[in-house]
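Hey,

Quick one before I head out. I ran the complex with adenosine monophosphate overnight. Inputs first:
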Amino acid sequence: MIGLMQKHPLIVSSLIEHAGKAPPTAAVVSRTLEGSIHRCTYSDIERRAKQVALALTALGVQQGERIGTLAWNGYRHLELFYGVSGFGAVLHTANPRLFPEQLAYIINHAEDQYLFFDSCFLPLIEKLAPHLKTVKRFIVMTDRLHVPATTITDLLCYEELIAQNSGGYSWPHLDEDAASSLCYTSGTTGNPKGVLYSHRSTVLHAMLLCMADGFALTAADSVLLASPMFHVNAWGAPYAAVMIGARTLLPGPALDGASLYRMMRDEEATAATGVPTVWLMFQQFVHEQALRPRQELKLRRVLVGGAAVPPAVVETFERVFGTRVLHAWGMTETSPVATMCNPLKKHALFSEVERIDLQRKQGRVPYGVSLRIVDEGGAALPHDGVTSGRLFVRGHWIASEYFRGEGGGILDKDGWFDTGDIATVDSDGYMQITDRAKDVIKSGGEWISSIDLENAAVGHVAIAEAAAIGLPHPKWQERPLLVVVKRPGLELTKDELRAHLSKRLPSGGCRMTSSSSQSFRTQQLESYRK
Ligand code: AMP
């Protein structure tokens, strides 16, 4: 017997349609490329997203075709999130931090028909254009006044394009299983692979972020997205904030400590998202400037993921900012959020030190995702918090295959996806990543967690950043090499660092190298090319 309830598809346009009816307060605050602050309401975003949809119609775009973007977090990018997917085309948010060859590869692979880009990426576009086989026209996301001189023929101006198309438009009733957006994996092994999200998976994932045991977004929040909209769609936050009616703060390309702090303070951000590297730089800025974030900011919680959050970052947020860190884990294939480290009732009795320690873990799965850990032979391993194994997941917002079937089947016979991460799970269900399967440092019979090593190093007051690498070794098979950046003005010898590590790790014995801040930053940015 079929239930007798209404069925409305879970589609991306329904989010902005809902938010567009909310009271017209300034809902989206963006820092433009020029540095000025732009404010608009969600009904402005919906109206202009409909103009985007009309423009796509006029350009002859068909539903299901891919439309690329190369852009920072800004209101025009948000309009494309809704205009392109709402129209029924597929938004491909390409990552400008990829190498140009990789970018050309993914844009050709996706067969993007049109490419929208921020004017700062013009030199990159000019370089790429001769190699892009399917792109019919390029659209620079600015007004006529700011269109730069270029060698690109027939360059379109975003504001002019959408101004020509301001008639009435109703969002089409799409199938909720239709594709809404496309993101490529970082491609550290082989070519990047496309993960094709559906409207349904996107809406369900946004609901997770709004759940109290998710990121707990509410209409009273102002959420600053320091996670780029080209990295797994800013972790779904542009959908979740719109769904719940939270204010969205978009910092543009300005992810440095000073710019983020100013936006947080001036716009009274209550929540923020970002990778550990961004928060490390942010906290360093606050420390150097001797600012008083507890008094000046209203930041209540920060969602940190993309890499393990160093306990020192959690501690600084807790003690200096009065901000709770929510450690999350996920990947492009998981939309991305698949686990979050929210507390249980018993943790209310935890001391501050224990609370900080809990955030080392990547957390529990919400409704909608299941996980398991298995040994090399595929046998399930116990959830004892000690035994580590390969992490498998499945659920409503987990990929079932890559775009165009790249790489063949990616699920095992029971529908589980092998994440390539190594993890433990404790008896309360808290998962902790110990390594990437390919990154784990295999020293003799012992597996050394590069994450533990990096966290232990960053726990030293004189160390700003650390990266552990496995080096081939004739006797041990592999030995860890630790590369560290010292905090400005602080000194530390190899022996002092060895002594520090040996108290925190089972055995010391690392060869140590130090690197200049600049070259390490470059490496960090390289590793952040995801
Ligand atoms: P990407 O698909 O480029 O976002 O990368 C996903 C990978 O980043 C995961 O498979 C993990 O190896 C790593 N990752 C993401 N979040 C975390 C986290 N909280 N802790 C440790 N590793 C993480």
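The mean pLDDT is 91.

Talk tomorrow,
K.
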